[in-house]
UniProtKB/TrEMBL annotation:
Cofactors, names only: L-ascorbate
Xref: InterPro entries: Pro_4_hyd_alph (IPR006620)
Molecular function GO labels: dioxygenase activity; iron ion binding; L-ascorbic acid binding; oxidoreductase activity, acting on paired donors, with incorporation or reduction of molecular oxygen
Keywords of the record: Dioxygenase, Oxidoreductase, Vitamin C
Domain Prolyl 4-hydroxylase alpha subunit: 118-298
Protein name: Putative prolyl 4-hydroxylase, alpha subunit
Phylogenetic classification of the source organism: Eukaryota, Viridiplantae, Streptophyta, Embryophyta, Tracheophyta
């Protein structure tokens, strides 16, 4: 083993998304500062807790070991790495945010929303030209990884066809997207699950196709709010399937039966946003490929409050089913006691 890379200093596969990484913009380094902030989330615990200088030195060693300066990923476009609203968004989306606060903002945000499934909202969001640039940037990054025999740290362990956007340098872009836009939308639509206090996020692009089978059975996300944006491309199939909602205690089952599912067909540039506790999955792609931009948003405040709340959750269908069942049992017992 190379003594410069002790076993206990190796990177971890799954990034620690809740970790608040340091900023490295003020350091004189040959690598991009955002790369260090992204890589820091893959450091083992004892290094994440070390000083910034120690982390920077260790990450520089890792980067030098696995790539030369000439081999580093080079961008095709600059647009994905700086959030220019006029380039990123469709005009109707931008118009909705001209009202900065109060009732006008709430009304404006709701005006661009459709609700084809209760609690699931769709709206036109990303400019189609920008969608194509993001697809090309992701494909370019994957090609670079293949050509340099570099490993890609996938967004989750169950999916081999995704790219974490933090890892290609889009951290600042995604932070601004959450702070300036999605937090406002979530505050209006999902106040019951911490939508008004989002403070961390995870963003990635997934590729679906007949030759790229991703298991998408009904599941919930480890998020308070989930955003999907179809980036387009030629494909058929891939409809999103929605069920009910589950709190963390009922994620893996319950007696409440899903009577029916609702289907939404992804449309290029269109966003779908819903609570992370919503059961959903994706039907198989019939032909072609679909690229999907996903973001998970979390609220540490909401999670702390939920850890102390042991009662029935209003947003969970299973909780409500059990609540009704207990109420019926109580009523039946009272009637029996009264001889009715």
């Amino acid at each position: 083993m190379d003594q410069s890379t002790p076993f206990n200093d190796r990177l971890v596969l799954a990034p620690t998304h809740d970790h608040m990484a340091d900023k490295y913009d003020d350091l004189d380094t040959e690598f991009e500062p955002q790369l260090f902030s992204s890589l820091e989330r893959h450091l083992p615990q004892h290094l994440r807790d070390a000083s910034r200088d120690t982390k920077h030195e260790r990450m520089q060693q890792i980067l030098h070991r696995y790539s030369t300066k000439e081999e580093c990923h080079r961008r095709i476009f600059q647009d994905p790495y700086m959030l220019n609203p006029k380039i990123f968004f469709q005009p109707t989306f931008l118009e909705a945010f001209r009202a900065k606060e109060g009732k006008n903002l709430v009304t404006s945000i709701r005006s661009i929303m459709s609700e084809p499934v209760p609690g699931v909202y769709t709206f036109n969001m990303l400019n189609l030209n920008f969608c194509q640039k993001l697809i090309h940037e992701v494909k370019h990054f994957e090609a670079w990884a293949r050509n340099t025999d570099s490993s890609i740290l996938r967004p989750n362990t169950g999916n081999g066809y995704g790219v974490s956007l933090d890892d290609i340098g889009m951290k600042a872009t995604l932070d601004k997207l959450m702070e300036d836009y999605i937090s406002l939308i979530s505050r209006v639509l999902f106040p019951d699950v911490g939508g008004g206090s989002l403070d961390s996020r995870h963003g990635y692009v997934l590729q679906y196709g007949r030759d790229k089978v991703i298991k998408e059975d009904l599941h919930v996300d480890d998020s308070e709010v989930t955003l999907h944006v179809c980036l387009g491309n030629q494909f058929a199939g891939g409809e999103l399937v929605f069920g009910g909602q589950r709190c963390k205690d009922h994620v893996n089952g319950g007696t409440h039966i899903e009577k029916e599912f609702d289907y939404l067909l992804p449309v290029g540039g269109q966003a779908i946003i819903h609570r992370g506790c919503r059961l959903y999955g994706a039907k198989p792609i019939k032909f072609g490929h679909r690229y999907n931009f996903l973001m998970w948003f979390k609220s540490s405040v909401f999670r702390e409050l939920q850890s102390h709340d042991k009662g029935f959750k209003d947003f969970c269908d299973e909780c409500q089913s059990q609540k009704i069942a207990r109420l019926n049992e109580w009523v039946a017992a009272k009637k029996k006691g009264l001889g009715l």
